[in-house]
Design goal:
Layout: E1 7-12, H1 16-27, E2 32-38, H2 41-51, E3 55-59, H3 67-75, E4 87-92, H4 100-105, E5 110-113, H5 118-129, E6 134-135, H6 137-149, H7 185-195, H8 200-207, H9 211-224, H10 230-239
Parallel strand pairs: 1-2, 1-3, 3-4, 4-5, 5-6
Helix pairs in contact: 2-3, 7-9, 7-10, 8-9
Length: about 240
């Protein structure tokens, strides 16, 4: 595989040993290469601007500019070197970091635990590179519970949540986004399962439909609700009270 066809990765973490570990795993793959390493958010942004990598592995808590602000700035860049957007994967030590939701709103394509298996890390990088989102399976349920507990409201970080909108009257829809009306009944069913953290294959098995059909539904859902990826679809589902 030529160098130009590899997935170009930047690693941002304030711990050198952590960066070295991730770099070793990624460097062992023929379809990936580490093109830069950063010790804080400002360095990560600078590398993203100059190198236009495909994926940035971003620690949340770093000195100076943290991972949230760095993610927001990187997500605003025009594109990676090959015309794709530079996508960010948040790395966290805990199943649920209070800043993860804010980082997702800032444009991250998901998050992983730092102790994730190497195989999972590599497959997640490929998944994000191909335009999909990832959430650490062990954290999905807790992330959703935290959103519900904090009354997560659209446009606010977990640290700055506002009370959720008052429940609608009986017989009235609980959503506020007109995009939801564009979804068919089946698409709403699929959206609910996405919000529950199910994979496409799991959705296909649960709803007794084919995998290609699920993929088609997911694509239509993302287009109709103007969501960049599955992570934003999860936020949309909870914003609108359908889960």
């Amino acid at each position: 595989m030529s160098e130009n066809s590899r997935i170009r990765v930047v690693i941002a973490d304030d711990q050198e040993l952590v960066r070295a570990g991730f770099a070793m795993v990624i460097g062992s793959q023929s379809d990936m290469q580490v093109v830069g390493q950063a010790g804080d958010g400002a360095q990560a942004v600078a590398l993203a601007e100059s190198l236009r990598p495909d994926v940035v592995l971003m620690d949340v808590r770093m000195p100076g500019m943290d991972g949230i602000e760095a993610t927001r700035r990187i997500s605003s860049l025009q594109s990676a070197a090959d015309g794709r957007p530079t996508r960010v994967i948040i790395l966290t030590t805990f199943d649920l970091d209070e800043y993860v939701m804010a980082a997702i709103n800032a444009g991250a394509s998901g998050f992983l635990l730092k102790d994730t298996e190497p195989e999972t890390l590599l497959s997640s990088i490929r998944t994000v590179f191909n335009g999909n989102a990832i959430i650490a399976p062990s954290a999905t349920k807790r992330l959703i519970e935290k959103m519900m507990q904090d009354g997560y409201a659209k446009g606010n970080s977990l640290a700055e949540t506002q009370p959720a909108a008052a429940s609608s009257q009986p017989g009235q829809p609980a959503y506020t986004d007109p995009e939801l009306e564009l979804l068919t009944d089946r698409e709403r069913e699929v959206l609910v399962e996405i919000a529950h953290g199910l994979s496409n294959q799991e959705i296909a098995s649960k709803l007794f439909i084919s995998l290609p059909t699920v993929k088609t539904h997911v694509a239509h859902i993302l287009a109709k609700i103007n969501a960049r990826d599955r992570v934003q679809a999860v936020v949309f589902a909870y914003d609108n009270g359908i889960v």
